[in-house]
Amino acid sequence: MINVVCVKAGTKYNSEFVNRLYRMVEKNLSLPFDFYCLTEDTTGIRKEVKIKDISEEIEEGLSGFWPKFLVFNPEIYDIPGETVFFDLDIIIQNNFDHFFKNIEKDKIKILHTGTNDVLLEYEINVGYYYETEVNSSVMVFNSNEMIEIYNYFINDMYSIMEKYKGVCRVLWNKYKYKLQYLKVFEDHYSLFFSNAEMQKIKDFDTFQIYIDVIGDTIYYVPNCTIALLNGKNDIWHKTEGQQLRSFFSDYYK
Question: Within 13 Å of residue 45, how many CA atoms lie on the same side as its CB?
Answer without folding.
Answer: 24
